[in-house]
Design a protein that fits this description.
349 residues, alpha/beta, Rossmann fold, 8-stranded mixed sheet, two-stranded antiparallel sheet, globular
Length: 349
């Protein structure tokens, strides 16, 4: 297993899992929402031992410092925290292979925009759309409403937030973190052994809950579903209007990009069960104004369109779809995931 260290950077105290050879190929793994680096622990044990692998906890997650997130900067706080860790670990002069999963995919894209010369490759695992999560339509990311209603901190399920804040490790509700993980992080009926499942739930329950962290604040809106993004916190950092990483198409140089996703992802999908446009369409959220006004967000189509532009502008990308996997292909199908990821790193080192 990886060693958990706490590093004091120029920005915050960052917990980071470390494995491999410090003189080896540097690989940086960035976790997803309501999780931590613990979700990479088993993967780190399977990666080549001559790699130098770092997996930090983002601010407000795991064992890192519980600082608030300024969502007006998108995921800028997270990306700058990551850069301060790279500097503190002495990697600033070495090209890094950067992998981001889900929220971490958004952070990785922003990091790439800010520091393109420091990357050897970029791997996006079930990443948030370059146009953010919620509130947009079509492959060009057109907002459904000018205030980006339907995205941000107000879109989180309040019962899930309550149970997360209370440290609910049980399974007596569909909204308990354990059951949400089982139902949505993975493709049912995938199931972890009890010890590993409990370790993941424990890491979920370390999430800082509140307006400055998860899920963040919200702004009332006159537009359906009557909520718009706020200015602080985790979900607002991913909200349309605050978050946008389309600038990757113009960055220079352009590291090779590997986009990995499960074929049955229920979170990042063109029919996402966390997207209010799709939930409205299926009748789960009342008052839906219709497909012409607020269709389901085409998250995959948006990502693919931006990566196609990246390629047109001189970059290179590959899309790897892993069968029988949901939002966490590195956990659900580790062999297929390793084949794609390890091959990419070796090819680009």
């Amino acid at each position: 297993m990886a060693e958990l260290q706490v590093i004091s950077t120029s920005r915050l105290r960052t917990a980071v899992r470390v494995s491999g050879d410090p003189d080896g190929i540097p690989v940086l793994l960035v976790h997803g929402n309501v999780s931590s680096s613990r979700f990479f622990d088993e993967l780190m044990g399977l990666l080549p031992p001559l790699w130098y692998v770092l997996a930090p906890d983002l601010r407000g997650f795991g064992d890192s410092e519980r600082l608030p997130v300024d969502a007006r900067r998108g995921v800028g706080d997270y990306a700058e925290d990551l850069h301060s860790l790279v500097e503190a670990m002495g990697l600033a002069g070495r090209p890094v292979h950067l992998l981001g999963w889900s929220l971490g995919g958004g952070v990785a894209m922003q990091y790439a925009i800010d520091h393109p010369t420091q990357l050897a490759s970029l791997t996006l695992v079930a990443p948030v759309s370059p146009y953010g999560f919620g509130g947009t339509k079509d492959a060009e990311g057109t907002p459904c409403f000018p205030d980006y209603a339907g995205s941000g901190g107000g879109t989180a399920n309040p019962e899930f937030v309550k149970r997360l804040g209370e440290g609910d490790a049980g399974q007596d509700s569909d909204f308990s973190p354990r059951n949400v993980m089982s139902a949505f992080y993975f493709k049912p009926p995938f199931h972890l052994e009890e010890e590993r499942e409990s370790a993941y739930v424990t890491s979920m329950l370390q999430t800082a809950v509140g307006e400055g962290n998860y899920p963040g604040d919200m702004t009332p809106s006159a537009n359906w579903p009557m909520i718009a993004p706020g200015q602080s916190g985790n979900l607002n950092s991913l909200a349309a209007g605050n978050f946008n990483t389309v600038a990757i198409v113009d960055m220079d140089p352009k590291p090779p990009i590997l986009w990995i996703r499960g074929d049955s992802d229920q979170i990042v999908s063109d029919t996402s069960l966390f997207d209010l446009g799709f939930l409205g369409q299926i009748g789960a959220v009342p008052g839906w104004p219709g497909v012409d006004v607020f269709p389901p967000q085409p998250m995959l189509a948006q990502t693919r369109a931006v990566l196609e532009r990246y390629q047109t502008n001189g970059g290179r990308y590959e899309e790897e779809v892993i069968e029988d996997a949901g939002h966490s292909p590195h956990i659900e199908q580790p062999e297929a995931f390793l084949e794609a990821f390890v091959s990419s790193v070796r090819r680009n080192s």
